[in-house]
Amino acid sequence: MRNTKTLIWSFILLVFIAAIYRVIPGRPYGFAPQWAMAIFAGAVIKNKKWAIIMPVLSMFVSDLLYQLLYMGGLTDMAGFYTGQWQNYTLFALLVFIGFAIKKPSMVNITAASFAAPTVYFLLSNFIVWSGNGTRGLGRPRTFNGLLLCYSDGIPFYLTSIVATLVFSTILFGTFVLISRGNHVKLVDG
Asked: CA-CA distance, 182 to 116, in Å (whole number)?
């Protein structure tokens, strides 16, 4: 019972730390732990509902923090915007990449760390280009417009890959170290 409570508090702490990290001024745009958190939750938490909730809740809390900073005039980035639900849906979908990791290994986690930001990049930029996006880049709805939209997102995409590799290493590495000491396999959550 004690291990379960500790684990639950660890995940709550992880959600809030990731949310706070995402709103730190000066960090490279896109360098955030939520992609890695989605993979980690999918791979480690057996309860699929809680695995999906974890990264989405972290995104929501960070968006709430962004909104409060925006309302206070401390940032130009609003936390909530039209089409926000699409972003949350994409992060929920990324958890399925974690579900595909049947046996966590360096190869599987690295592959997932490339796959999650890639899926997000392809889908989110397509959504923005198609006119259903959150910020509408004003790109024409032509094939060239789609390519321009993808081109605009490349810096964010590259940063998100590096961030996912870094944070996946931290999350899975810490989990392995803790698991070895407590003989934990996967989280029932």
From this structure: 29
Domain that residue 174 falls in: 2-182
Q: Would residue 109 count as lying in a domain?
A: yes
Flag whether 151 is in a domain. yes
Read off the pLDDT of residues 55-97 as tens digits, 9 standing for 90 and up. Answer: 999 999 999 999 999 999 988 888 898 888 999 999 999 999 9
Per DSSP, 23 falls in state T
Q: What is the pLDDT of residues 14-45, one digit of tens each?
A: 888 888 888 888 888 889 999 999 999 999 98
Q: How many domains does the chain have?
A: 1
Residue 160 counted as domain residue: yes
| Look-up of token digits 């360096």 | 106
Is residue 97 within 8 A of residue 51, CB to CB? The reply is no
Predicted TM-score (pTM) of this structure: 0.85
Would 189 be classed as within a structural domain? Answer: no
Return the residue matching tokens 């032509």. 142
